[in-house]
Design goal:
Layout: E1 2-10, H1 13-22, E2 26-40, H2 45-48, E3 51-59, E4 62-73, E5 81-88, H3 91-100, E6 103-118, E7 121-128, E8 132-141, H4 147-160, E9 167-168, H5 172-178
Antiparallel strand pairs: 1-5, 1-8, 1-9, 2-3, 2-6, 3-4, 4-5, 6-7, 7-8
Length: 179
């Protein structure tokens, strides 16, 4: 699958919630996400513009764990990239497998995410310590030919929400490393 994602720094999360509801967005749920990123001994994902992580999301008395690979960005305007995800039952053993293959935990990103649905798009408002609030709008497709049209629609949604600047192409991990 290809994830077409655009994010922007926002300064008033409450206003953003109101604007999402005004255009017809519906609140879905909130998540606390704990991401452990890995880097290789022989392959530096910073150099290849890829990412490998395990995301842990609390679910009641347990956790949902998702192993994710993100490929290099497909263009320079957005964070559009191939993404492969698999739910894993055992985070500890998956971490051991990755370490045994030469990947080491390299960074942690924690955030609180509020998720809204709008048409076929997912709008998220994320709060990260040290970085503040960001809004992400994403769409998932299997067709690389649709990317330009989807990006245009996402920028249109941002305009409808009153957001015309503050767009960020780098990942939260990269932003935290800069911070």
């Amino acid at each position: 699958m290809i994830e077409v994602e655009i994010k922007a720094k926002i300064h008033d999360n409450k206003l953003a919630f109101e604007k999402i509801k005004e255009i017809g967005g519906e609140y879905s749920h909130s998540e606390i996400q704990h991401d452990i990123y890995f880097n290789g001994e022989t392959k530096d994902f910073r150099e290849t513009d890829e990412a490998l992580r395990i995301r842990e999301i609390p679910e009641g008395d347990d956790f949902k764990n998702i192993l994710t690979y993100k490929g290099p960005k497909l263009n320079t305007e957005t964070k559009t990239r191939k993404e492969i995800e698999v739910v894993i039952d055992d985070k500890v053993n998956m971490t051991e497998i990755l370490i045994s293959l030469g990947y080491k935990p390299s960074a942690i990103v924690d955030k609180v995410r509020r998720i809204f649905n709008y048409e076929n798009y997912t709008i998220s408002i994320d709060k990260l310590n040290k970085l503040g609030y960001y809004m992400e709008i994403e769409y998932v497709t299997d067709n690389e030919e649709d990317i330009d049209e989807i990006q245009e629609k996402i920028f249109d949604i941002f305009k409808r929400l009153g957001i015309t600047d503050g767009f960020e192409k780098t990942s939260y991990l990269e932003l935290l490393e800069k911070y």
